[in-house]
From TrEMBL:
This is Trimethylguanosine synthase. CDD domains: AdoMet_MTases. The lineage of its organism: Eukaryota, Fungi, Dikarya, Ascomycota, Pezizomycotina. Belongs to the methyltransferase superfamily. Trimethylguanosine synthase family. SUPFAM superfamilies: S-adenosyl-L-methionine-dependent methyltransferases. It comes from the Eukaryota. It catalyses: a 5'-end (N(2),N(7)-dimethyl 5'-triphosphoguanosine)-ribonucleoside in snRNA + S-adenosyl-L-methionine = a 5'-end (N(2),N(2),N(7)-trimethyl 5'-triphosphoguanosine)-ribonucleoside in snRNA + S-adenosyl-L-homocysteine + H(+); a 5'-end (N(2),N(7)-dimethyl 5'-triphosphoguanosine)-ribonucleoside in snoRNA + S-adenosyl-L-methionine = a 5'-end (N(2),N(2),N(7)-trimethyl 5'-triphosphoguanosine)-ribonucleoside in snoRNA + S-adenosyl-L-homocysteine + H(+); a 5'-end (N(7)-methyl 5'-triphosphoguanosine)-ribonucleoside in snoRNA + S-adenosyl-L-methionine = a 5'-end (N(2),N(7)-dimethyl 5'-triphosphoguanosine)-ribonucleoside in snoRNA + S-adenosyl-L-homocysteine + H(+); a 5'-end (N(7)-methyl 5'-triphosphoguanosine)-ribonucleoside in snRNA + S-adenosyl-L-methionine = a 5'-end (N(2),N(7)-dimethyl 5'-triphosphoguanosine)-ribonucleoside in snRNA + S-adenosyl-L-homocysteine + H(+). InterPro entries: RNA_cap_Gua-N2-MeTrfase, SAM-dependent_MTases_sf.
Length: 266
C-alpha cells in the first residue's frame, strides 16, 4: 500500500502531555521543563509533548533561525519550494518552516503516532492553517526509498507514494533532526558520527542524497567525517553552529544536491 498523508487529526493519547505545575513533572524532565518557553514561547497555550520529545525538540529560536537559513526560492537555482522534515517530532522545526512562508509545500514525517498527534496539535496552537503542512505517519527511510524507486520508474507511478507526497528532487530540500543516541554525545569531546544511534551519518546521508539536505547534529560532531560528504566538483558544504545564551545548541550541515538531481522530475 502506498504511503499516504494523514487524513485529518490523529487522536491525542495519554502520552501527549502538558505540565502546568513543576510538581507534575517527572524528575528526569524538570531541567527541560524549566526551559519550556525557550522550546515553545507559546507553551502556556496548551503545547503538548510526549516524554521523549522533551529531550529532542529544537528550541524555537534555533528552529526559526534554521528556517531562515534554509536555502529556498531566491537563494538556489533551481528554486526550492518543497521542504520535507524527516523527523518531525512534536513539530519544533516543522512549525518554524511553515511559519517562514518560504515553502509551497511542507511535508512532516514522523513514525510515532502520539508524537505526530502532538505536532499536529502544536501547529494548530501556532495558528498554522490546516492544509499548510502535509502530515505523514511513516518511517522516513522507507518514504525516501519509495520516492526514489518511484522516480526511477521501477514501479507504476504513485504505487508506493501517494501523489501528494511525490517529490521533484530538483525542487526539494530535506531536513533531518534524527535522534542523537541518548545523551552520550555529551561525554565525547569530538562526537564520532559513525557511532550515532540508531542512524549514523552515512545512513542519513545515503538516504537523503542526491537531494539537497540539512542535517541537525550534535555541536561537537567530527568535522573530518562531515568533510567527507562534500560532493565532487568543488561544491562547498556549509556547517553552522546555532547558539543561544553564548553556547552552541547544535550544528547544522547544509549539503548541496548532487548533479543528477536536477534531471529527475516528480
Ligand atoms: C530529535 S526528535 C526530532 C525533534 C523535532 N525536530 C522537533 O523539534 O520536535 C527525532 C524524532 O524522530 C522520530 N523518528 C526516529 N526514527 C524515525 C524514522 N525512521 N522515521 C520517522 N521518524 C523517526 C522519533 O520518533 C522522534 O520523534
Amino acid at each position: 500500500m502506498a504511503i499516504r498523508p494523514v487524513d485529518g487529526w490523529l487522536p491525542l493519547t495519554d502520552e501527549c502531555l502538558h505540565y502546568t505545575e513543576e510538581s507534575e513533572v517527572p524528575p528526569d524532565l524538570k531541567k527541560y521543563w524549566h526551559q519550556r518557553y525557550s522550546l515553545f514561547s507559546w507553551y502556556d497555550y496548551d503545547i503538548l509533548l510526549t516524554h521523549d520529545a522533551w529531550f529532542g525538540v529544537t528550541p524555537e529560536a534555533v528552529a526559526n533561525r534554521i528556517a531562515e537559513d534554509m536555502p529556498s526560492h531566491n537563494l538556489s537555482n533551481p528554486p526550492k519550494d518543497i521542504i520535507v522534515d524527516l523527523f518531525a517530532g512534536v513539530g519544533g522545526n516543522t512549525i518554524a518552516f511553515a511559519l517562514s512562508g518560504k515553502w509551497d509545500r511542507v511535508i512532516a514525517i514522523e513514525r510515532d503516532p502520539a508524537t505526530l498527534a502532538c505536532a499536529q496539535h502544536n501547529a494548530a496552537i501556532y495558528e498554522i492553517p490546516e492544509g499548510v503542512i502535509t502530515w505523514v505517519l511513516a518511517d522516513s527511510f522507507d518514504y525516501l526509498a519509495r520516492v526514489k524507486r518511484q522516480q526511477q520508474q521501477q514501479v507504476r507511478k504513485h504505487e508506493l507514494v501517494d501523489p501528494a507526497l511525490d517529490l521533484d528532487f530538483s525542487r526539494t530540500v530535506l531536513f533531518a533532526s534524527p535522534p542523537w543516541g541518548g545523551v552520550n554525545y555529551r561525554d565525547q569531546e569530538i562526537f564520532d558520527l559513525n557511532t550515532m544511534e540508531p542512524y549514523n551519518l552515512e545512513t542519513l546521508h545515503e538516504a537523503c542524497r542526491p537531494m539537497e539536505h540539512a542535517l541537525y547534529l550534535p555541536r561537537t560532531s567530527d568535522m573530518r567525517q562531515i568533510a567527507k560528504l562534500a560532493p565532487k566538483g568543488g561544491k562547498k558544504i556549509e556547517v553552522v553552529q546555532y547558539c543561544m545564551e553564548g553556547a552552541s545548541k547544535a550544528m547544522v550541515v547544509y549539503l548541496p544536491a548532487e548533479e543528477d538531481a536536477s534531471n529527475q522530475k516528480g
